[in-house]
Design brief:
CATH architecture of the largest domain in chain B: Roll
Strand order of the largest sheet of chain A: 8-7-6-5-9
Shape of chain B: elongated
Oligomer: heterodimer
Structural class of chain A: alpha+beta
Number of strands of chain B: 12
Radius of gyration of chain B: 26 Å
Number of domains of chain A: 4
Distance between the termini of chain A: 67 Å
Strand order of the largest sheet of chain B: 7-6-5-4-8
Largest sheet of chain B: 5 strands, antiparallel
Distance between the termini of chain B: 70 Å
Number of helices of chain A: 9
Helix content of chain B: 25-40%
CATH topology of the largest domain in chain B: SH3 type barrels
Number of helices of chain B: 11
Order of helices and strands of chain B: HHHEEHHHHEHEEEEEEHEEHEH
Chain lengths: 311, 333
Amino acid sequence: MTESLEERFRRLLTMVPYMVKHPGVSVNDVRKRFGITRSQLVADLNLLFVCGLPGYGPGDLIEAFVDGSRVWIRLADYFSRPLRLTAAEGLLLYSGARALSAAGAGDEALERAVKALEQALGPDVLSRVSVELEGAGELATVREGLLTRHCLHLVYYAHSRDETTERDVDPWALFLSGGRWYLVGWCHKVADERIFRLDRIRSVRLLETSADVPKDVDLSRYESLYVQGAQDHPVTLDLAPQAAAWVAESYPLASQEVLADGWVRVHLTAGGTAWLEKLLLRLGPQARVVDPPDLAERTRQLACRLAQRYR
Amino acid sequence: MTVRKAERLLNLIAFLLETDRLITPQQIQDTVPGYADQSWEAFKRMFERDKEALREVGIPLEVAPMAGLGEPEEGYRIPKDRYYLPELDLAAEELASLWLAAGLVRLQDPTAARTALLKLAGELPPEVERARLSWLSADLGLAVPGLPRAFEAVAERRTITFDYRGRSGVQTRTLDPYGLVHRKGTWYLVGHDHDRGENRSFRLDRVSGDIQFRGKGGPGADFVAPEGFRPQEALEVPPFVGRDVGRDVGREEGLQAVDALVRFDASTAWWIERTHPWLRLDWEGDGTASAQVPVSDNAGFISWLLSLGEGVELLKPAALRGEVLARLEEICD
């Protein structure tokens, strides 16, 4: 992979200070530390060698050279300290720290590190950033299950089916997506892998039984959030343009296409359809069900039941 | 070509960083190798692109008018106090916790965390680099384009302009960004909207194209934010809730709020309590709860109500109940 100019500069403005501070550091150390090849390092030194301060003569230009397996940079005092954190780096570290502490995995060292980060980014800059992460009520028990590898007993509200169930789960991992926490684990009730939204765990109890946790839970598998299950079925809706934009922002869609009349046909997969009925209820005339056909009828029945209350 | 550009940029950085005075574009052209053989026009274009390149790397470039005889002129410098990372002296365990924090966040660029920590610490002991929490991960939506730029504007108090996809199509907006909020996976900019003359919030995923700084980047801030402004308060309540709750950011002008009384049944109330911190629930002994909601946008409110299905009922006022019924009858007739 070739490095862009921007990436190269980011690296140089961190790497040069390191080499200035450590005269005669080994080439291998620099290579490993900054993840570059020997020829990249040589190209960097050749670049530095022709740069410097106005005058651009000996004494103005940076001295950069390799002697055997060691490297020196001199006459570059102005590069002896690294460039400040970029906005992206600052946000990455800060929001990561917030997630870590919201998961209850932070400690005093993390708090001190965040203080240092505040100092690095400038006075009260971080007070202008609010990373809202729910610290859902049952997080502490779930975390204990994860750390001690114990089975959990959940009372869980499945929004997609509009039902509350009880089940024992071997907790595998916790992840945050869309500002919400999810628990991944093995559900003994269905004998399969399942994802549970933490804010829908009505209550949780730590069991004595120890949990089976696979060695390498690959969390990137859950990146798209929705892992297809055996009972999932495809749903197709036609939506008015405004409704389509909102739905696309709010729910994971498999695909969408614009129809001749400007409406949008969206395809998604759903485990249950109770949530879809409520979605259709709120969209009203801005949505038409294409598939499955009985979804429209069930939505109509829900609307009629609700209408009874308001008559 | 690229080598020459890299050389020119590095010399430009060194020149502007080592000086304590402002440097004119003319002095830059005369001094920095690579510019001198260009015509004035070609130099200016080249210098614009180079300034952009410095900005992308995160180098603070300051522009200020220069006092002097003759034509008013602008000068450039890279202020040392803003360029250099302050000495932080992080202990190994602090570094380790930041490494874990950065490791949680899934990013397209896996080297970003390393670079940031190398900057902070100068080195990364191997035992720190190996540390990882296998049971935890977080997607904080950091990949949304424009986020770094938005944060920069908030941090440096720069007035910005950007194209925004709103209800009435794409419009160019001008904003004094007071703060940045991450809520439910979405990043919002909140601040003073110049065009509307009031505080508003903007979803970053609806910004199209680049966020531009309106000013040239003088040494001071472009605006002063209100004392004690808390960005999260600006977003605390959904847009259908009336003015008298929370701050007035994002509210429609001149709307009267109507008090609605809502009751949640036991299967829904516990969840509402967790997910709607802005609602004050009055609990009954049987696990049901009710709440007053000041409604300023009926359609938005009804939409929210219906999305909660059978677990909720609007008790008062009668007129709003009538509107809910009309919406339901559209579907069931």
